[in-house]
Amino acid sequence: MSERLLVRLVRPHSAAALGRELAALELDSPAWGRLQEAADWYRIWLEPLDPTAAHIVKENLLAAGGDALLPPPLYAGVVAGGPVLLLGSTATLHQAVEALAQHQWPSLQAVAAAVRTALTNAQAGPPSLQIGPLHCVWGTRTYIMGIVNLTPDSFSGDGLLAHDEAVAAALDQARSFVEWGATIVDVGGESTRPGSEAVGLEEELARVIPAIEEIARELGHRVAISVDTYKAEVARQAVAAGAHLVNDVWALRMDPAMAATVAELGVPVIVMHNRMRPKNAVQEARLGGRYLGIHYDHLMADVVRELGESLELAAAAGVPPERIIVDPGIGFGKTVEQSLELLDRLDELRVFGRPILLGPSRKSFIGYTLELPPEERVEGTAATVAVGIARGADIIRVHDVREIARVVRMTDAIVRGGRQRERPGA
What is the CATH class of 129-415? Predict the structure, then answer.
């Protein structure tokens, strides 16, 4: 088994999503019954396994009281390898894992280790994390990140570079965000809207560094400050100016120096899934723009695989895993339908054992669903935030902090039992 082993938690919340998983396994309607029987079980996807390993895994699951679904060609041994969907309770899977771990084949030992890690990540959750003045205890509350856009062309219409006093406007906005309940402010100087042009290094530095310095001077003891950039030098200077967190929309892939820089700086990093450069994207301009024609062989498998590659890149550079936050990149290189499915299946990212950030605010998948321009998407954003929290989001990145903070508090009261912790400096 020379290929990297893909491990996914499979948690489709709709019949359509479940049908796509069955189609990927080349299984038809008779398999529905087995999956419905296993509704309360874990479903763990492994890929690729060769036919012999797949049958041994299935035999061990059956012996423990679970099961494994194999595509017919893999079951018949007429292909070199393919996916296997494991079905079982926690006890069942642990029993099977222990048996596989004792096997002489390294490939089966690797399966055992991967399944054990996936179960631990899904059940235990990520360890707490210090981000500047903010102590994050994941699972106890949802943290709100307010967006400070120092751009002239933000898709949402809130770019502060249009102001004569952009730095003062950014500081004033950050003050309001903190007052309304934001625990993180995210300062960015390059638009990522469909069709936007890249910004040069010096221009991006000129936009964000003065604002970060002012926000840090007045609010740095009360709120965590994030810099939204994929450039290593911007990250370096932003942290020197007072930022506590790097938010990389290219998941450490665009700038070869970014992973090592984040490791050297010793700050947490957000790695976001992304496939499409805004300037090169096939898009529709109506309602602020949206991506079209983005191909994925399998949406969830591809997102998990590519995020996993970024986590490996971070680990190789020396970034501790507890300092990494994952973001599925809702709306980035995804169609409306893909963004909706990714939101509904957000909890599958728990396979990484990392905190999850969700950034749905005012995005085109909301606009095209409701037929509304960016400035009228607050209610749609609120709906996505509520679902996102229910599906496991730890941080919500939004423009409309005052309104969404109320949604977060209410949803937390339902989902998390109302457990809240004080804001830093409060």
Answer: alpha beta
